[in-house]
Automatic annotation (TrEMBL):
Keyword annotations: Cytoplasm, RNA-binding
Source species: Helicobacter equorum
InterPro entries per record: KhpA (IPR020627)
Superkingdom: Bacteria
The keyword RNA-binding belongs to this UniProt entry's keyword annotation: yes
A Pfam entry, by short name: KH_KhpA-B
Cytoplasm found in the keyword field: yes
GO molecular function: RNA binding
Protein's name in the database: KH domain-containing protein
Amino acid sequence: MIEKFVETYTKKLATRPECIGVSSRDITEEDGSITREICVLAHSDDLGRLIGKEGRMIGSLKTLISGAKAKDGQNYRIFIQAINQ
């Protein structure tokens, strides 16, 4: 559910939405908790748009995801990775 939201959100921001991809995996932390790691793959031209000025855009996305954490108790980590096509 969160992955679909992140994909839709980032596609609306990107100038090349066809290049956006989202993948996720579960990571077991040292304390035994499970964190879902969400990776947004985007064209290198869109990195600045997705991160935003002073990280505000990615920060707002993290804030929205933290609301989901409050609901389901799952920890999330999000990062953006560049792809060149």
